[in-house]
């Protein structure tokens, strides 16, 4: 009996208990052309994954593991998970493949197929990178009619003993969201320190040259690559966030500002998702900053809620709902994404600004994703799975398990209310309140009809009209639907006509 221990590109945690069983059996990592091209991946994303995987390979070799590694340009490389895995099973003469739970159902299926075709068995073991295992989440959700993130978060916080004072939450309340929704107002954002940029070493330089040569037509530009690719760099990025930006995290969490993509956000999602950082160490570092008086409770709780609450919650949803979840399309949306989601070229300043961050950094912060790019796609009526695929291509931190519930579920309401209780539908008035974008835009966020009408506003009213019957039983939509009912028929006809034009030819 000989086992091949497979490490996926988003499982780069050398501290995982997975490695305790390896001994002198082979460990395999594979770069695959099919993964780079099944959606046309952003160049920064490709550099990130290939460079981090190569660094991880070297770290494992240094620790004495017998590592096998497929580079994407190796002529022997079969190019996709199924066939490359089958090839290695033959070369290494193993009868079992052992892997942690893949965070992508498509990959899981391909591994099953690869093992079956090569006559090996596949052993999938839990992924200890998460604070809540798949089994625990399934147990937590059993018998619950509705899955409320807040309930999950509180139970996990108690179990982990995070920000707890005996049985009570630190600061006397569980949730400081009310303090965390401020906009920047006329003064604009303060000068937050920028996240660190990590200089490219020889490995990263080599990968950059490879990506430039092999994927010249993919979106983005390798010249702006600055993400951590080693555990050391990731720990440094965490330290810098805790020292520089955690104290101001939260209050302006939902605010957006022209030319300022990062603000007080941590920009740690890629490092956590590739497992260069463990979520527990991230949470503990934030908690320690509070204990030392370095950051206030609203900032620290707001941050911990994202990592310990939302992140673990969406992962649990994915693991317990797949594969059927990917098919859900509660609003029966069938449209396509506008070209501006690839080029950033549009007259809508909000979309242009957010796309500039995505194209330059493979990044946009939560509200830019949810309340600009996600919102516009939902209002246009784009197929939610297409939005998810676009997301997988363009964001450095996107992996199926985290993108699908956030995109198809939270932002597109494709799951009909499993992740969020109502659609995140809003007009240009929301963007205007939470950003400075509208001031320099040729459209007017207050107008729903006419040449200057804001496309968000027109499409918002038309969205409510189109889905009025479907949403009428959702009591959280009551206020918005009452406002719709105040619109007279002539205005609704004019809105509808303009909305049809926008859908046929998005600006
Ligand atoms: C439409 C949409 C798509 C998204 N797709 C992804 C994705 O593909 N990958 C991804 O990691 N996050 C995704 N998110 C969640 C969130 O927007 C990003 O984690 C965050 O913007 C990353 O930037 P940051 O590290 O600066 O986060 P911060 O604002 O500093 O938040 C801290 C950390 O909390 C975690 N987090 C916060 N919100 C969520 C959430 N809803 N789900 C999971 N983790 C969360 C992340 O690890 C993040 O690094 C998505 C959100 C939306 C609305
Ligand atoms: S006016 Fe409308 S399109 Fe222009 S920036 Fe504001 S929300 Fe976006």
- Judging from the principal axes of the Cα atoms, what is the shape? globular
The share of residues in extended strands comes to 5-15%
- CATH classification class of the largest domain: Mainly Alpha
- Cα end-to-end separation: 61 Å
Annotated CATH topology of the largest domain: DNA Cyclobutane Dipyrimidine Photolyase, subunit A, domain 3
Task: Report the average pLDDT across residues.
Answer: 96
Question: Percent of residues in helical segments?
Answer: 40-55%
Oligomer: single chain
CATH architecture of the largest domain: Orthogonal Bundle
Largest sheet: 5 strands, parallel
Spatial sequence of strands, sheet with the most strands: 3-2-1-4-5
Describe what this molecule looks like in 3D:
The model has no long low-confidence stretch (mean pLDDT 96). The chain has 3 domains: 3-125, Rossmann fold; 134-196 and 230-321, Serine Threonine Protein Phosphatase 5, Tetratricopeptide repeat (Alpha Horseshoe); 340-504, DNA Cyclobutane Dipyrimidine Photolyase, subunit A, domain 3, CATH 1.10.579.10. β6 (164-165) and β7 form a beta hairpin. It has helices spanning 33-37, 43-62, 81-92, 105-118, 134-141, 149-160, 202-214, 231-244, 269-273, 279-291, 297-321, 340-343, 349-361, 366-380, 384-394, 400-411, 428-434, 455-466, 468-471, 478-485, 489-504; strands spanning 3-6, 26-30, 66-70, 96-100, 121-125, 164-165, 168-169. It is mainly alpha-helical and 507 residues long. The chain contains 21 helices and 7 strands. The protein is 48% helix and 6% strand. It has a 5-stranded parallel sheet, sandwiched between helices. The chain has a two-stranded antiparallel sheet with strand order 6-7. The protein is globular.
């Amino acid at each position: 009996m000989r086992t091949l221990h497979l490490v996926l590109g988003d499982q780069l945690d050398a501290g995982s208990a997975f490695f305790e069983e390896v001994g002198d059996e082979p460990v395999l990592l594979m770069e695959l052309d099919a993964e780079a091209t099944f959606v046309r991946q952003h160049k920064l994303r490709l550099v990130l994954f290939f460079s981090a995987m190569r660094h991880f390979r070297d770290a494992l070799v240094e620790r004495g593991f017998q590592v096998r590694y497929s580079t994407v340009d190796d002529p022997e490389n079969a190019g996709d998970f199924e066939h490359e895995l089958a090839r290695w099973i033959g070369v290494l003469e193993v009868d079992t493949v052992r892997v942690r739970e893949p965070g992508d159902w498509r990959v899981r299926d391909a591994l099953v197929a690869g093992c079956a075709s090569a006559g090996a068995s596949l052993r999938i073991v839990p992924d200890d990178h998460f604070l809540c295992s798949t089994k625990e989440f399934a147990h937590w959700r059993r018998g619950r009619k509705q899955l409320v993130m807040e309930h999950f978060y509180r139970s996990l916080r108690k179990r982990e003993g995070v920000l707890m004072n005996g049985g009570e939450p630190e600061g006397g309340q569980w949730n400081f969201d009310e303090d965390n929704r401020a906009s920047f107002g006329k003064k604009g954002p303060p000068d937050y320190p920028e996240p660190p940029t990590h200089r490219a070493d020889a490995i990263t330089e080599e990968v950059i040259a490879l990506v430039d040569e092999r994927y010249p037509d993919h979106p983005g530009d390798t010249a702006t690559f600055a993400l951590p690719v080693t555990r050391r760099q990731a720990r440094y990025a965490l330290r810098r966030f805790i020292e520089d930006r955690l104290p101001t995290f939260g209050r302006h969490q939902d605010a957006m500002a022209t030319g300022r993509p990062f603000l007080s956000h941590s920009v740690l999602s890629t490092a956590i998702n590739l497992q260069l950082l463990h979520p527990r160490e991230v949470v503990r570092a934030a908690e320690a900053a509070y204990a030392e008086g370095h950051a206030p409770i609203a900032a620290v709780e707001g941050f911990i809620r994202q990592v310990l609450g939302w992140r673990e919650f969406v992962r649990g949803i994915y693991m317990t709902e797949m594969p059927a979840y990917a098919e859900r399309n509660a609003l029966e949306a069938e449209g396509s994404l506008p070209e501006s989601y690839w080029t950033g070229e549009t007259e809508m300043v909000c979309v242009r600004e957010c796309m500039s961050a995505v194209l330059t950094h493979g990044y946009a912060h939560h509200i830019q994703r949810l309340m600009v790019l996600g919102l516009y796609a939902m209002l246009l009526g784009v197929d939610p799975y297409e939005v998810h695929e676009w997301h997988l291509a363009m964001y450095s931190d996107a992996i199926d398990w985290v993108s699908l519930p956030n995109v198809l579920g939270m932002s597109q309401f494709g799951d009909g209310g499993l992740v969020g209780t109502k659609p995140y539908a809003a007009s240009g008035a929301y963007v205007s309140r939470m950003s400075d974008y509208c001031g320099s835009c040729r459209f007017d966020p207050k107008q729903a009809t006419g040449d200057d009408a804001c496309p968000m506003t027109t499409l918002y009213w038309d969205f409510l009209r189109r889905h009025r019957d479907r949403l009428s039983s959702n009591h959280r939509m009551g206020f918005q639907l009452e406002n719709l009912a105040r619109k007279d028929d002539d205005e609704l006809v004019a809105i509808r006509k303009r909305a049809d034009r926008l859908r046929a030819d998005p600006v």
